[in-house]
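Q: Hand in one record:
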Amino acid sequence: MIQAIERSWRGSESPEREQEPTASITRLLRLPPVVTASTPLTRAAELLVRPGSTLLVVVDERRRPLGVVTATEVLALARRVNPTRFEHATVLDAARSGGRFVPETSTLRSVHAALLDENRDYFVVVDQEGRLAGMVTAMDVLEALEASPPVSGTWPIAALHHAG
């Protein structure tokens, strides 16, 4: 894969060049599992044990993200509270902020830089009204960069190291 990222982009392979560093991340977005703030934590635990499920995005009634819940947060709350309290807990009791959210108008370059600068594996992405638009992961960005490096050189040396 590294060799594929380092190859020069020739332009004829993808005339639209949608994955250039200045392209919007909207094509990379995936919809994460979503729960409301009142979802019982026991239900969240059921959702998190499903294959491929690593986090849940907690949203309000207008689909604005409030935070995220991972298996780690569920386990941490289970350790801190008694079993009766845990059975009545909601996802909001265990949720963490999820860090800053990025707008769906963000560019591939800016998301790449932010993932590295903030040592993150993903970002929750919001639309102009602050509602959940999706999620973008470091793997999504890596795959996009591997698919179409820019005309002017190779990704790791020329563009990605100095993205910003």
Notes: The chain has one domain: 15-160. The chain has eight helices and six strands. Residues 113 and 163 are 6 Å apart (CA to CA). Residues 1-19, 151-164 have pLDDT under 50 and may be disordered.
